[in-house]
Amino acid sequence: MKAGIIGFGIGEQHIYGYKKAGIDVVAICDKDKSKRLEAKEKFPNCEIFEHDYEILDLRNIDIISIASYDQDHAHQVIKAIDSGKHVFCEKPLCMNESELKSIKNSLDKNPHVHLSTNTILRMSQRFRDIKKRIKRNELGEIYCIEGDYNYGRLNKITQGWRSRVIDYSVVLGGGIHMIDLLLWLVGSTVEEVSAFGNNICSKSSSFKYLDMVTSLIRFKNGAVGKISANFGCVYPHFHKVTVYGTKGTFENRIDGALIINSRDINKSPNLLNSEYPGLKKGDLIPSFVNSITTKSEAEVSKTDVFDVMSICLAINKSLKNKKTESVKYI
Question: CA 212: distance to chain centroid?
């Protein structure tokens, strides 16, 4: 198989993921001329294109990696699927419910096509270790879980390309990582959500959408959760996670990770020294390629992709309607 890349920012990291999986990347596309020149210099054996349709129409490509701007994902994903190409896409898969339904319709017509997204946090060794501990029942029954996506990069929504996206969503742009991670850790679907937000941090800028969203979620198994997408925070880029179980608690804090096994304040918690984040942007690609060659499920399956997107859209609907919303799974 051969692969092509749309978007040579994050997309460059995809190339190394494909190399690790034994797949040749033969074409790269980017609308930015400087990016095309950089791509040609670094990867002289690749064909370089300016327009996405040029690479999507190539017949010698089996896999398309999409690392373009968020608003371009949907039509590129649909075109790739309709062309019979497997798709690995940066999050979010798309921007709204209509686009998600269109992608689902294309997949229904092309059931052999594999699809996955780069919701990468589940590849962090620290989170993989706590997932194993949860499976071994070391924390007991998980009844509450919290995840804060502290972006800490206000300038990227007030000055970068995100500032020009109509209806930009910090839930789809960042909170989606925490939603995927918490779903994976808890192992249950979400039934309903209730969300609140503001734009206090960016109110004096040209960015007119919410830069902070907090969502309360109820899992089918009875657990409750809280997820925040905090783009304007005065805080380093970090993923704060707390898992409360009946036997113990896990905390991923900026000064280290802890496992707390006692309610006694005089007893010291155990340190968890697993590497964090301990991952590269292309780490999910070998699993995705393997799913194609072995007809198995990727680390992030189609079901995972659509479940997480459906929850994100329910959160955005709750924000719009100012009420609790049931998750409508697509």
Answer: 17
Sign of CA pseudo-dihedral 297, 300, 304, 310: negative
Please provide the size of the chain in residues: 330
Q: Which of 154, 155, 219, 150 is nearest to 187 (CA)?
A: 219
Using CB atoms within 10 Å of the CB of residue 255, give its burial: 0 to 12 exposed, 13 to 18 middle, 19+ buried.
exposed
The pLDDT tens digits for 283-304 are 999 999 999 999 999 999 999 9
Q: Provide the 8-state DSSP code for 121.
A: G
Among positive and negative, which fits the CA dihedral 209, 212, 216, 221? positive
- What single-letter DSSP state applies at residue 268? P
pLDDT digit string, tens, across residues 317-327: 999 999 999 99
Residue 202's beta-bridge partner residues? Answer: none
CA 33 – CA 28 distance, rounded (Å): 12
Dihedral of the alpha carbons of 208, 119, 229, 12, in degrees to the nearest 10? -50
Element (H, E) at 100: helix 97-109
